[in-house]
Every structure is written in structure tokens, then in C-alpha cells.
Amino acid sequence: MDETLEGWSADTRDPEHRAEVIDHAFDYRGDVTIVLDDSTERVGYVFNRNRDVPDPYLEMFDSAGGPPIMIPYASVRAVRFTGRDTAAGNSYVAWLERKAAAKSSARDA
Amino acid sequence: MSVPVSQMWTVISYVAKQKLRGRKRYPLVLMLEPLFRCNLACAGCGKIQYPGHILRKHLSVEQCLRAVDECGTPMVSIPGGEPLMYPDIGRLVKALVARKKYVYLCTNAILLEQKLDEGLFEPSKYLTFSVHMDGLREDHDEAVCRDGVYDQAVAAIRAAVRRGFRVTTNTTLFEGADAFRMRNFFDEMMDLGVEGMMLSPGYSYSKAPDQEHFLRRQRTHQLFSNMLNKPKTRWKFNQSPLFLQFLMGKQDFECTPWGNPTYNIFGWQKPCYLLQEGYAETFQELMDMTAWDRYGRRSGNEKCRDCMVHCGYEATAVDHTFSSARGFRDAVIATVTGKL
């Protein structure tokens, strides 16, 4: 669970690779930065994607707020995994260790 | 079983209507997630790992009611996140009760006493507080990763029962659960005066921090058989007895992924409450466009292999009750005798 794509950046000009990277972005529990064809950037959370339609698209919530936005796959030039991966580095084992440490320090006090 | 007759009758007539209409796939319980924000971060939960701006979002009451009307289930479960953190929870519950929906408000109960004191809810046969309790004090506090939560929940259950609310518990079981301790836990919950208990094995969410403690299928059979062997007559379960028999390995069911459709800020979740493979804009789109044959144990989908969770199999158990003489007979015997 501690493996993460956080910090990864992928060029998506190749359509095959693009679909794969967008799948990773969809699966990622953090914000990403989508670089569009015109070099504009959208930062937010990708919550949906659909490549089973003639014009595949992704949907994201911009981190600045507002309603969801739809972006066609064809206009995605790069994806950067810029936000913190909220599913990583928070293991159960770590919690057990913290709990044991707290108990031990309470005993010592 | 502890489900009141009026609720049972509502479900029976709903299922009968679906059968008469020839609907092969119909939903039974809407899982309505108005928000993902929670005041706990449990080790087995894969629902709350989102960036802050997503956790701050929530559905409007109007969006919730539109979803309820769209799918038309007789029961609405409100999980989350923690639904008592939803700012409009009082208004939402009131509107659902007015629609005569049986509401299960799934809460960790940390805020329950406070909300009861604020007069946010009124007792009704349509409203049940389903309190998350994963075992005796030590086991529960460990599962929710915070000490003291068990005691808070017990106090809240007592307060809700005292005020005349319907209260059930919902328990998720993980690897390492002890059948003997769970039997003590059932006694303790019944002593609190709850109407019934709900049980389910946990699902191995790919995003949950704890991946090592989810039950595999054989182990689930073993644990539930030991736990529910010769059940005490005072134990009441607020769920289909056939589902419990399935967990014990006495029934062989296939998943009904459309049985508990899920709606949240992203839309209608495909295909089920546990897997997140995309979102549909409408309930009809969810039903029509999801490749249902890719899910369930027989599909060979690895993500479904060990899943025995209530949201996939309880609807199967209910459907089985009304689809065959054997199913009906088994359910009646278990309900009348309390034997599983």
C-alpha cells in the first residue's frame, strides 16, 4: 500500500499510453495536474473516465472548486501526479506501532 | 430476525412487484453517500482517502432525493463518510421518512448523542440508527484506530434506545476475529436493547490502509459457523437469515451487484458499493451500461473472488427467498425457529 505514483509525470501524446495513464489518474487518490494541448493546466481530482465512447473523456473536480469538468482524452498532453496520495503511507501496521509506543510511554510516565 | 412486520411486508410487496413486472435486475437498498468526510480513519475503510477539496464536498438534499426517486428502492442506507457530519442530515432524514422509505443511518455514533440533544431526529418506524460496532471494547477501538470510541458508541446507543429510536448495530469482521469473543459481543449488544445486529465480512478495498486482515472465503465460512453455531434465542439479526447461512457456507449464492446501488458526489457508482470502476449520470444508465457479467464470483473477476459482503449477497438472499419454494421454506424456518 505504500507504493505510490505521487510525483510521477507522464507524457500522453501517444494515444495508447494516454489511456493507460488516465486510468492511473482515475485510480489515484490525490490531485493530478492535467496539461492540455494549448499548454493550459487543470489541477484537480479525476473521478471518472470513459473510453467506451467514440470520443473518450475524463471528468474531474478542479481543486479550486466548482462543478465537475469534462476533458476529452484527445486534448490531454501530459498528466502529472502532483497532489498527495491520500491512500499511501498510512498503514495499519504503522497505527499499531503508534498505539504500542503510546502505551509504552504512558507506562513510563 | 428482528425486522418489524411492516418493513418485512414493504420488502415482500416490493419484490413481488418486481417479479410480476418481470424485472430481472432490480435494486433493493440504495446506498446514499452524501459525503465522504469522516471523524474516524478506520484501518479497513477505503471510503475516505480523498484530497481535502473532495472531502469538503457533499450532495444537496435535492440531489439525494432525486437519486432516491430515480432508483425507487424501499430502503435507503446512508453510509459515508460519517452521515452525522452532513450539515443537512436532519432535513434529509425527514424527507425520506415522509416518502415512507426505511432509512438506515449508518453512524459511528460519536456525534449521535449531540444530534439527539439538538432534536434533529424524531423516532419513527422508518428510521433506524445503524451503529458501527466491530466487537468488544478492545476489538472495536482497534478496528476504528482510536481508543474510547466503543464507550462513546455504547452511551449513544443507550441514549437513542431510551428515546424510543430503532437502533441496530453493524459489524464488519476481519481476519483474527475471535468467534468466542464475538458471541460475548452479541450478548453485550442485546443487553443494550438494540433491535437487532447486522454482520458482514470486510471487503479488501484496494485503497484501505490494512490489506492483511481481510477474510478469505473458507475462513469466512469457518468463522461464521463457529460464531453462529447454536445461536442464542435472544440474539436478533436485522438481516436475511439466508445471508447468514451463506456466510456459514450453508447456502451457495452469486453476487447481485445491482442490489445495493450507490450514489455519491461523483454520480452512480459502477458496478457496486465496493468497486469503483466509473460513474454513471443516471440510475438507468448505471443499469443499462454496466457490463454486469464481468462481476461476481463466477465471472472470474479477481476483485470479486473472496467478496461475501452484504451489499452484494443480501439482495441475492432476499431474491432467493421469493424465487423458489426451497428459499422461502428455508427463510421461514430460520425466521420462526431462530436456527441458522
Brief characterization of the structure:
By secondary structure, chain A is α+β, with helices and mostly antiparallel strands. Chain A is built from two helices and six strands, in the order E-H-E-E-E-E-E-H. Chain A starts with 8 loop residues before the first strand and ends with a helix.
Explained architecture:
The complex is a heterodimer of chains A (109) and B (340). Chain A is α+β, with helices and mostly antiparallel strands and 109 residues long. Helices cover 28% and strands 30% of the residues of chain A. Chain A has two helices and six strands. The model of chain A has no long low-confidence stretch (mean pLDDT 88). Chain B has 340 residues and is of the alpha/beta class. Chain B has a nine-stranded mixed sheet, with helices on both faces. The longest helix of chain B is centred in the first third of the chain and has 16 residues, at 5-20. The termini of chain B are close together. The model of chain B has no long low-confidence stretch (mean pLDDT 93). The A-B interface holds A 1, 26, 29-31, 44-45, 47-50, 59, 61, 63-65, 83-84, 86-87, 90-92, 94-95, 99 and B 41, 43, 46, 49-51, 53-54, 57, 142, 145, 207-213, 266-267, 278-279.
Topology:
The complex is a heterodimer of chains A (109) and B (340).
Chain A: E1 9-11, H1 15-27, E2 32-36, E3 41-50, E4 57-62, E5 69-72, E6 76-80, H2 92-108
Antiparallel strand pairs in A: 1-6, 2-3, 2-6, 3-4, 4-5
Chain B: H1 5-20, E1 29-32, H2 52-55, H3 61-71, E2 75-78, H4 89-98, E3 102-107, H5 112-117, E4 127-132, H6 137-143, H7 149-162, E5 166-173, H8 179-191, E6 196-201, H9 217-228, H10 241-247, E7 262-264, E8 267-271, E9 276-280, H11 283-289, H12 310-323, H13 325-337
Parallel strand pairs in B: 1-2, 1-7, 2-3, 3-4, 4-5, 5-6
Antiparallel strand pairs in B: 7-8, 8-9
